Amino acid sequence: MTVERYDIAVDLTDLDHGTQVRCESTIVFECHRPGADTFVDCAVEIESVALNGVPLPTAVDGRIAVTDLGERNVLTVLTVLDCSTHQLGVRKVVDPADGEVYFYTDFVPDYARHVFACFDQPDLKAPHAFTVTAPSGWLVLSNSGDPQIEDLGSARRWTFPPTPPLSTYNTVINAGPYYELRRPAAGHDLGLFARQSLAPILDRDADELFKLTTQGLEFFADKFGMPFPQRKYDQVFAPEYPGAMENFGCVTWMDWFLRRTTPTRAEWDIFSRYLLHELAHMWFGNIVTMRWWDDLWLNEAFAEFASNWAAVRATSYTDAWTAHLAGEKLKAYLVDQGPTTHPIRQLVRDVSEAEATFDAITYPKAASVLQQLMTYVGEAEFSAGLTTYFAKHAWGNTTLQDLIDAIAEASGRDLTQWSAGWLETAGTDRLTLDNDKNRFTLVAQGPGGPPRPQVLAVGAYRASGNQFERTALVQVEVAGERTRLELPAGADLYLVNDEDLTFASTRPDATTRDAFFTNAARLPSPISRGVAVATAWDMLINGEATAAEAVRCLTGMLAVETSASVIEPYLNLAVEAADLWSPASERNALMRAVAATCRRLSDVGAYRKAALRGFARTAADLDEVAWLQAEAGEDVDLHWRALVRKAQLGSPTAAEAQALLDRDPDPDAWISRLQVRAATPDRAEKEAVWQTLAIQRAVPLASVYSFTPLFWTGGQDELLRPYTEAYLELVPTIHLGGTMPATTLTRGLFPQFGADLTFVEQAQALAAQAVPVVRAALLERADRLARMLRSRE
Q1: 311 — alpha (psi -120 to 50), left (phi > 0) or beta?
Q2: Pick from 638, 644, 632, 556: which is nearest to 600 by CA?
Q3: 595-618 pLDDT tens trace
Q4: C-alpha span between 595 and 619 (Å, rounded)
């Protein structure tokens, strides 16, 4: 079949006061074997359906049977849905600040079929022409810009031009009384949108958002040999949106990204990479789309890689790869060495299996592997291969081999072995430096066999005053289990995977192992220190280092770190090591060590906010909380964090929290108030929060993870133990509502304290019966908790 076009009429006029959405989908498609039968996806209530003017029976199990097809066919389906339920694909949200109503669609991976009739698979791309009727005070946004707008009195009709050929999941409608900012740049008309109650926040951040978008558009147009082919590029910050989605020409963001307090450098660093990630998807995912979900990495890994590439080359966020290493890549190392590891490219039999692959393997590991590929073939050759790839496959669908062929041709390298090792083999290589009487050998082991082909570097460092200086950097192409290295003898530290050129678990040589955790802070650059942190953290999660050693390494780093992009990630790691990975007998002392580091860093202007946030998580007593409250000044966010810590320490907070709630301008301040209650060691408060968070699911998904370290507070084990059982009771139905709720709630509600290895075994047993996306998240979290429990012994 070939889908010629979709014409989709959507009526949103009931949403001003009601919950009903009506859609009429008209599909024009060709059948290359006239007389054949097929089906159309439609998993929503159908009012009428007709093929070539002839009425048909309604759908069965989400499929409309269409038989005896002609060479050219027209199918028209009228559907109606209710936004008040757990309806997939659409959401109506009421802003608590002013009662204004907003609407969005979210069709990934196959949720368009829950709204209108379509061929809901990625390789049946077609132009989509949306006509949307909405209340007169609303703006309506979709993929193609410049709609015709017709005034109907109490409503307006927005008729959008047809899109280029897109997969159904890349289409979108965002609607509501949005606040709008526009700016011309890089030959495009750029738009930013937020709910009215967040207009001041969007105004504050607009310059940086427009600048980053412009820089990304120019960089990708150059590196991909193709400019973004549409005049308008909009970005919509929608309330309660569950993440970010790269809809062609109209990206939708959860408006959690519009930070209610002035963002730290680390927050801007993360957001810059997210923004560039979604922008890169205009090429990787929209213009060229994977044929089926087994090549999801073609979309996600390339967007993740390209965002770091662009950040370093085209923006002020030049420590992007270091920040990637300090955050997402560490998560990938953990997952890739656990029970849910899988090849980057794997067999995906259906969409439910595809949902489980939106993970740390497909995103940060695969992005790091692509960085390795660019190192392996050369940046110029890599870019040339991408230019060929887009020129050949624009508006079509591809597989792994299409991309590998393009890069192999441009670089002149046979990538067969590289592709098999990196993309079709699960697990993490282990690289260890062997020093036998100053004869150095890199010992490399692959997951269950020989190492993958890769290029990496080993650095040698000697003390020079209080710092180290690099005396040698040996770059080597690994092609076997043992590779001789010409390194200088007598160095004070040898750093495996210096410059972070590959994805591998690394270990220092045995002779400098014990000094490694102290000396790592003397390394001279953010990336070398980042590699040392990654080594220390990997040793911690694998039981080869203690929490005390990890904290010593991280606090040492924080005392000398010069990159504001990684200060906050390192603080978070230090708190996690002290709080979650340490034995109870050492926990308070390690938390105090982190608190002391935070207090020292608070004197450095660029690091002050991040340091005070870290101090809020580690303050040892009420006197320290009082100091933090005095330092917070007018920063309402810091005052909330101080109250959370005060609650964890067992002090009453109700009156202070109510007073702070009354003066907080954030429309979502009720969430901050709930976080204070979550941290409170009180049975009634825990139960109320659990009901709101887990049973009613009233907390926006973007905020769920912030509750994890608060509800599951260390030292409250007896209070928390009943909720470990309550969590297990949630598992059979936790998937209801779609992929993002399933993943976020499974991970975000998972216990950190109050649970033991028996609980881990129960969770693992439940995972065997869960849907794939829940199974993967549950096994991942169970593995992480088991490692923590062993580290706490």
Answers
A1: alpha
A2: 556
A3: 999 999 999 999 999 999 999 999
A4: 6
pLDDT at position 18, please?
Answer: 96
**Cβ(676)–Cβ(670) below 8 Å:** no
Cis before residue 447, ω within 30 degrees of 0?
A: no
Contact 23, 67 (CB under 8 A): no
Q: What is the Cα 125 distance to its own chain's centre?
A: 26
Where residue 315 falls (left for φ over 0; alpha for ψ -120 to 50; beta otherwise) is beta
Radius of gyration of the chain (CA): 27
Return the pLDDT at 438: 85
* Surface-to-core class of residue 415, CB atoms within 10 Å of its CB (0-12 exposed, 13-18 middle, 19+ buried): buried
How do strand 250-254 and strand 397-398 relate by DSSP bridges?
unpaired
Residue 499 bears catalytic tag = no
640 residue type, one letter: W
Report pLDDT for 641: 98
Ranges of the chain with pLDDT below 50: none
Q: Report residue 283 CA to chain centroid gap.
A: 19
DSSP at 325: I
pLDDT at 86 (0 to 100): 80
Percentages of the chain per state (helix, strand, coil), in multiples of 5: 45, 20, 30
Comparing C-alpha atoms, which of 75, 164, 167, 76 is closest to residue 124? Answer: 167
Q: Do residues 596 and 616 touch, judged by C-beta distance below 8 A?
A: no
Catalytic residue among 240, 278, 328, 576: 278
Can you tell me whether residue 306 is helix, strand or coil?
helix
